[in-house]
Amino acid sequence: LIGYLNGKFDDLERLHISPLDRGFLFADGVYEVWMCYDGRRFADEQHWQRLKASLAGISLPFPNLQGCRSILDQLVERNAQQKGTAGIYLQITRGVAPRKHAFPEATSPTLFAYSFPFQRPREALASGVSVHLIAEMRWTRCDIKSIALLGNVLAKEQAKGHGAFEALFVREGHVVEGTHSNLFAVRRGALWTHPLGPFILGGITRAHVLQLARSAGMDVREQALTVEELFQADEVFLTGTTTELMPVIQVEDRSIGDGRPGAITRELQRLFWKSTAFPPPLEFNELP
Ligand SMILES: Cc1ncc(COP(=O)(O)O)c(C=O)c1O
């Protein structure tokens, strides 16, 4: 695979960073992930806007984000990913400097990007997944898409150990989000999701789904759910760039609804795939 590092395209194995890069030493950086279908990045502008917000969140000026667009285009082209699905990863760190906590004075940022082949989770999108609950152990700036993901990594590993697709973080009795996804639930006909703020990442897919739901006339509440409310929800699903709109049919050992993806989830999936132009993972009449 071809990647890009500070002005140079090359095989990933030939690209190297300094051990003094602050991304390596302090996780002092931010990132973005795009989904690319047939060479077209989904919600491109929204990802650049969030990257800008993340950079501002860590006081890291980055003068020419505009110029980065063509880097992403070139990666997809050089990796021959113009057909089907690919993921694109872009990371910006504060750069290389002697290891001192405070910001270095004159250091240029490190920019790394690559595009990777991505298999959509087609079966799971059709049948639904289970999730595992875990006590929140991250910081209070989850709205910054920081590369400091150890809490997310440990939680996802625990979910894997429980045979679950995703871990959901619980903060003071409320379910906030997953390790790489946002959470939605349907309760008494209304669609619930955690409000924006410091405890969740403002997901691009979350915002897109909220817009679809509102346009379809659904009753939408950006309000946190308690664990008990989640257990009792009629339907639950996750959203994310690589997760798309994923039905949840089980939370811990408890079934959600009748243990199959619910009708509102299915309708939102339909609207989602229509609006993104990603093909549905199965013909709809084949969906369980
Ligand atoms: C912690 C967290 N929450 C939510 C999301 C979903 O955001 P998006 O829809 O922009 O991919 C992600 C994406 O990776 C994430 O890492």
Structure description:
The protein has helices at 22-26, 44-57, 68-78, 122-127, 150-161, 204-215, 227-231, 263-276; strands spanning 2-5, 8-11, 29-37, 40-41, 85-93, 110-117, 129-135, 166-171, 174-178, 182-187, 190-193, 219-222, 225-226, 235-240, 244-251, 254-255. β15 and β16 (254-255) form a beta hairpin. With 288 residues, the chain is α+β, with helices and mostly antiparallel strands. The chain contains 8 helices and 16 strands. It starts with a strand and ends in a 12-residue tail after the last helix. Strands 7, 8, 9, 10, 11, 12, 13, 14, 15 and 16 form a 10-stranded mixed beta sheet that branches. A 6-stranded antiparallel beta sheet has the order 2-1-6-5-3-4.
The amount of helix comes to 25-40%
Overall pLDDT = 95
**Helical/strand content category:** alpha+beta
- What is the makeup of the main sheet? 10 strands, mixed
Q: Give the percentage of residues in beta strands.
A: 25-35%
What binds here, in terms of ligands, is: pyridoxal-5'-phosphate
Q: Which descriptors would you attach to this protein?
A:
6-stranded antiparallel sheet; 10-stranded mixed sheet; 16 strands; 288 residues; alpha+beta; binds pyridoxal-5'-phosphate
Give a topology summary.
Elements lengths: L1 E4 L2 E4 L10 H5 L2 E9 L2 E2 L2 H14 L10 H11 L6 E9 L16 E8 L4 H6 L1 E7 L14 H12 L4 E6 L2 E5 L3 E6 L2 E4 L10 H12 L3 E4 L2 E2 H5 L3 E6 L3 E8 L2 E2 L7 H14 L12
Parallel strand pairs: 7-8, 7-15, 11-12
Antiparallel strand pairs: 1-2, 1-6, 3-4, 3-5, 5-6, 8-9, 9-13, 10-11, 10-14, 14-15, 15-16
Bound molecules: pyridoxal-5'-phosphate.
Pyridoxal-5'-phosphate binds next to helix 6 and strand 14.
